[in-house]
Every structure is written in structure tokens, then in C-alpha cells.
Amino acid sequence: MMHRRLRLPLALLCLFLTFSSSFAQEVVFPLFGNSELQQAASSKRVNQSERRSASSLVQLPFSDDFSRQGYYPYEGLWQDSNVYVNPYYGENPPTIGVATFDGLNRWGNPYNINAAASQKSDYLTSQPVELGTLGPDTSAVWLSFYYQPQGLGDRPESGDSLVLQFLDNAGAWNNQWAVAGRSDTVFQRVSVQVRGAQYLYSGFQFRFFNYATVNGNRDHWHLDYVILNKNTQPNDSIRDNAFIRPQTSLLSEFSALPYSHYKEISPGTAAMRASISDTVHNLNYGPVSFTYQSSISDALGNTLFLSPQSSLSSTSNTYTDFTTSLNGFSFPAQPGDSADFLLKTWFGQPQLSNPYNDTNYYQQRFRNYYAYDDGSAELGYGVTGNADVWLAYQFDVKKADTLRGIQIHFNPTGVNIATQLIQIAYWDQLSVAGNTHRLVYKMINQRPDTNDYTNGFVTYLFDTLLVVQPGPAWIGFIQNNPQTLFGIGLDRNTDPGDKKFYHADGAWFQSAIEGAWLMRPLFGDTITRGQVIGIEELDRGPIIRVFPNPSTGSVRMERPAAAIGNWRYELMESTGRVLRTEQSAQTGLFWQDLPAGYFLLRVTDDKGVSSCFKIVVSR
Q1: Which pTM was predicted?
Q2: In what order do the strands lie in the sheet with 275-283?
Q3: Range with the lowest mean pLDDT among 256-265, 302-311, 404-413?
Q4: C-alpha to C-alpha distance for 41 and 247, rounded to whole angstroms
């Protein structure tokens, strides 16, 4: 999928940020779109435009806590698919998974990019419900739900709102409840009574919708645990225990890294968390004891780890934390940079309630990149200043390898950035205290919206092979126009700590904004633009042997005897600076007294075809 040109009206910027041009400032702001929904739409993994209707009326109790897998509401209970079902945006929700209302359509794009005022946006409409057979006692029918403004997303302004309506038997939608936008609060529960003959009929429906500025992923409301039931009372009906948040990486430092780099960490347990943590919410269930257990399996389904069954007790309307020891588990050795493992944690209740929120999953992926983020951005992040703005992201690399590029999730806002240029950069030294750095490489004249856009990330492949040694490395970009706000994705569910830095107005600063930037360094020998795992070998050139490698200062290069003609040999630093050049018709060449370090050897045959080889020299 090619990256779209992203534009927002300049006036929009004034609605959510104010900054002075006299000094640098970090800024957090709403996202433009939803990359998960955009990717789902482009890959045609879902087709919500052809949703089927329920084959019969929904019987009481009507209950949904949005813990089922998928991006859209469950069609057996809901008619439309405007809201985004996810486990990311709610802050400490009652149960895992919420329905998020925003300014985007079902495909993750703004309803109206030019809108400047609040208007109706997302709808969540129930399937028809059977309320016509309740009998004479109909005073005890209640609809209850939890809601939260903002959460981990964008605050709805006072002119925004969340509204509940009932459909009467004459076909008219009538307002029953509404709340105005405000800053983040805890989830609150609301109960609304359903009464009167105009609503107690076969085919009754209710719906929620929000007022928002519909030019971006903004003005968030989050809905959880909607229940319509009879013979009940306010704030009643729920009898459940549930997980409240998704699991996170099993690795102690990263969410992902190349598998070959993971295998360099010895012992393997040093890269792992010692235990996994979970929280179970007892929603009016009463005192209960149940067992919980965790497992880790490989891509073939083989169980690699299974914890003993443990017991847990909780009381009504409480949150109970528990941990499961990994007992020194580490992932097994296997070839390649890629691997997949599944962490599963579950508990069993004495009486079956909602099974979808009783199990928690996490997919541990090893790929050809390092990452701190969980792949989902809740907000955008940027820096403004009077001089060039630089963003530098630190990764402690575990193995000497070729740095081939970086991926960035851009969230441009405020102006058309298609005319802007950035420089992709790599530093091998950086000090905030000393206000010093060493810029090893930069790739100029890059545009945020002209590269391949895959899984929400723009991929930039370096035009020079860079060998990175184990230890800290910084990747990022230099913004040529400091007055333009360049946004990148900010994951608010994870935070790498002191790894984010920016340079503005002549000085380096450590970021004070919590969250992980969606920016990833790409490693390895076989990376193809726009792909997470490359399948095209980039160095398909002359066949040659280079040995010993690593060496202590002397290297021999041999080509097949049948290969004739003058070949060119160039020894380069990782920056691309050429240290030694030789052209020879000999089939063997010997260099000695090479300096210590990591180098690239470029060999070009008489037809102009080149290959690059990494050389390590240690003394």
C-alpha cells in the first residue's frame, strides 16, 4: 500500500496545541487516521460494508464487553461498524477491550478532512431486541454501560458529546442520556431504565453516537460492558471476572528484535522477564476463588512452557493483581532472524460467565527490526524549534550486524508535508549532558509520504551498508523545516524510559513525554523496501571468498579461476568513506595491516556488477 498524502487544515492545529516560536517544545496531538483499519481495508481482510442482519431478534440479556477478537463490533449484537473495537485506547477499563468513538469512518479515514466544527460521527446501533414478551411487570428493564472520555487518546472538547438514544415503536429515535466532552476520568457506569409501551415492543433498538471534529482520529470516547436485561436494577446485571488489559512482551527490554540478536544474549534468561503480570477485575461476582495458568507455544503449536495451576481469590468489585513465574524460561535456539511464539494466560470460574475476557494472548514476534512499541499508536508526537529539529532513538544493539534502514510511523498534521524534506540519520555517540554527538550517516532529500507504507510504517532503506557494533546506537531523522510540525506515532501503552532524545535550538534534550515512538531500526543482509522480512538478496554480484573473517589485520580475497578481467576492490568504513582501493586481474589478492574495526568490502567485476561483504578486524 502506498502512503497517502496526509493533509489537515492549518486551523485544526490551533484547536489542540499552542506553542511559542521562541523556543523548542515537545507536542502531543491527535492522530490523522487509524493504520490498523486502513491496513485491514487495503488487504480486504474484512468487508464490513456487507454486514448481515441478525436472523432473529436478540433475546435478553443483551451483553457485550467488546472482548471478542477483531476490529469491529460483533454483528450478532450490533448493526453498524463505525466504532473501533480495541484493547489499547481505554485506560484501566472494566474489562479487556473497548469500543472507541472518534472522528474516523469504518476504514480508519476522516469523515471530512475539511471539517472544523463538531458534528455527528460514529454510530453503534443494536440489532433489534425482543422486549414485547415481558408481561405486565416491565418496571425492571435497565440498560447499563461504562464510558470514559479521552482514555489514552485525545480529549473530547466541551462541544463534543456522547449520546444514547432509544427507538420507539413509531420509528423515531429519542435522546435518553448524553454527556459533554471533558478531560480523562475513570470509567463510570450509567444505568438508564427502559419503560413505557413505546419501547417495550418486539424489535426495540438503542444506539450510541458521538459528536466530534471529524477531520482526524480525535475526540475519543470509550464504551465498555453494555448490558440490557430484565428483572434487574441500576448498576446490576454483571456477574463476571475479567482481564482488563492485554499482555506485553516477554522480553525485558524490547517488544521485538532479530532472533539472531536475541541468541547473542547469554544466558537467554537475561533478555527475558522473570515473570508475567495480570489483573483480574471482579465485577459484582461476589467472593470467588479460581485457578489460573499460563503457557508458551511455538508457531507449530508445540508447548514450550506450562506453568503450574495456581489459585486466586477475589472479592466483589475489586481488582486483583497476580504474577506467574517463568521459571527461567528462554526461547530455544533456531536459525534465522524470524520466529513466532504465543503466550496464553487463562483462568477458570466456578460458573461460566463471559469466556472471551477470561483468556489473555500475546504474540511474541522476532523480526529483522528492534522495537519498543506494541505496533499501535494512540497519539502523535513532534517537536518544534527555531533551528533544525533532530529526533534520535536509542537501541542497545546485541550483535554486530548491518544496519540497512529504519521504519517510521508518520502522523503529519497541520500542513501538506509532501513538499517537506527530512534526512534519515544514524549516530553512534550521543550525550545530553555534554551536548555532543557523532553523526555517522545521513540520507538526504527524503520525504515522509513518498515511500512504501506497510503496516503503518514508512520504510527507508539506506543507500550505504552500515556495520553497527554491539552497544548503543541512535536512529532517527533531521527535520529541515523546524517550524513545520512533523508527527510520528506515539504508543502510550509502552515506555522505553530514557531512550528518546531530540535536538532543537542548538541543544540535546531527553524527551519528557511518556510512551514509545513508532520508529524501528532494520538489520540484516536481505531487506526489501516495504517488507518486514526481505526476500530479495541485495548483494547478487561476483562470487568471491573473503577469509579469514574476522581477521587480525590480514585478509585474502579469491575469485574463481574462470573469472577473468580487471576487478575493483574497495575497503570502506561503515560511513562509506573509502580507505583502500585496488584494481587487479589476479584471481587472488592479499591485504595486510588493516586497522581494527568493522568495514565493508565492495568488489566490482569487469561488467560493473558489485557485491558487498562485511569484514571484522580485531587486534
Answers
A1: 0.79
A2: 240-243, 275-283, 318-325
A3: 404-413
A4: 26
Strand extents, DSSP E, 285-417 = 288-298, 303-306, 310-314, 318-325, 339-348, 359-366, 379-384, 389-397, 401-408
Q: Does pLDDT of 16 surpass 60?
A: no
Pair 154, 142: CB distance under 8 Å = no
Q: DSSP letters of 436-490?
A: EEEEEEEEEEE-TTSSBEETTEEEEEEEEEEEE-SEEEEEEEEES-TTS---EEE
Confirm if 215 and 103 have CB atoms less than 8 A apart: yes
pLDDT at 515: 96
| One-letter identity of residue 171 | G
Gap between the Cα atoms of 78 and 124, Å rounded = 7
Cα angle vertex 257, ends 252, 259, to 5°? 105
Q: What is the DSSP letter of 336?
A: S
Cα 433 to Cα 137: distance, rounded to the nearest angstrom: 73
Q: Across residues 178-182, what is the average pLDDT? A: 96
The mean pLDDT value for 454-481 works out to: 86
Instruction: Compute the average pLDDT of residues 86-92.
Output: 94
Comparing CA positions, the residue from 284, 281, 287, 286 lying closest to residue 237 is 284
Give, in order, the Cα–Cα distances in Å from 414 to each of 113, 216, 293, 504, 528: 11, 11, 48, 20, 31
Q: What percent of the chain has pLDDT over 70?
A: 85
The 3-state secondary structure of 371-385 reads ECCCCCCCEEEEEEC
The residue whose grid cell reads 497476580 is 322
- Where is average pLDDT lowest: 202-211, 363-372, 520-529, 549-558? 520-529
Can you tell me the distance from the alpha carbon of 271 to that of 606, in angstroms, rounded to the nearest whole number? 47
Average pLDDT of the chain to the nearest whole number: 84
Q: Which of 112-121, 325-334, 396-405, 476-485 has the lowest mean pLDDT?
A: 476-485
CA distance 570 to 578: 7
The secondary structure element, H or E, covering residue 99 is strand 98-101
Distances (CA, A) of 176 to 12, 164, 364, 539: 31, 6, 44, 66
- Range 477-493 average pLDDT: 83
Phi, psi for 376 (deg, rounded to 5): -120, 130
Residue 272 CB coordination number (10 Å): 20
HEC letters along 193-219: ECCCCCCCCEEEEEEEEEEECCCCECC
